[in-house]
Design a protein that fits this description.
The chain has 123 residues and is of the alpha+beta class. It has a domain of 66 residues. Strands 1-2 form a two-stranded antiparallel ribbon. A hairpin with a 5-residue loop joins strand 3 and strand 4. The longest helix is centred in the first third of the chain and has 24 residues. It is elongated, with a radius of gyration of 33 Å. The model has no long low-confidence stretch (mean pLDDT 88).
């Protein structure tokens, strides 16, 4: 004869913790983690990873009952560090102007030709 009070599934054991609030909170955090993974991939690409770590402890009491306690933790991928580029001069000052540009440019040059006349489009 089957015991109507037997806990047959792992989920039933988890539902015992805090009258089901533990399981509900864990499922909510897992859902948040899955959303975070998708958002991370859309923002940064790659194959983001996350974890959910569940710890259950079972302690047999002198009276024969088993006390269950549980904790969990989720870890989402961290966004890449912010970055930017500037150039340092000989004195260590930063500038947006590349020193290579000084070598490439010797100043502006006139590209207009005095013997060319203006014409309209389609001529």
């Amino acid at each position: 004869m089957a015991d109507d009070f037997e806990l047959r599934t792992f989920e039933q054991q988890l539902a015992l913790l805090d009258q089901g609030a533990f399981l509900t909170e864990m499922q909510d955090k897992l859902r948040e983690l899955q959303v975070t993974l998708r958002e991370y991939q859309q923002a940064y690409g790659g194959k983001p990873k996350g974890t959910l770590t569940l710890t259950l402890q079972y302690q047999l009491q002198k009276s024969g009952d088993v006390e269950l306690t549980g904790t969990f933790d989720t870890k989402a991928p961290k966004a890449p560090a912010a970055s930017g580029v500037a150039y340092a001069d000989d004195q260590g000052r930063l500038s947006l102007y590349s020193p290579m540009m000084k070598q490439m440019q010797s100043g502006l040059r006139d590209v207009t030709s005095p013997d060319r006349k203006m014409r309209s489009a389609g001529e």
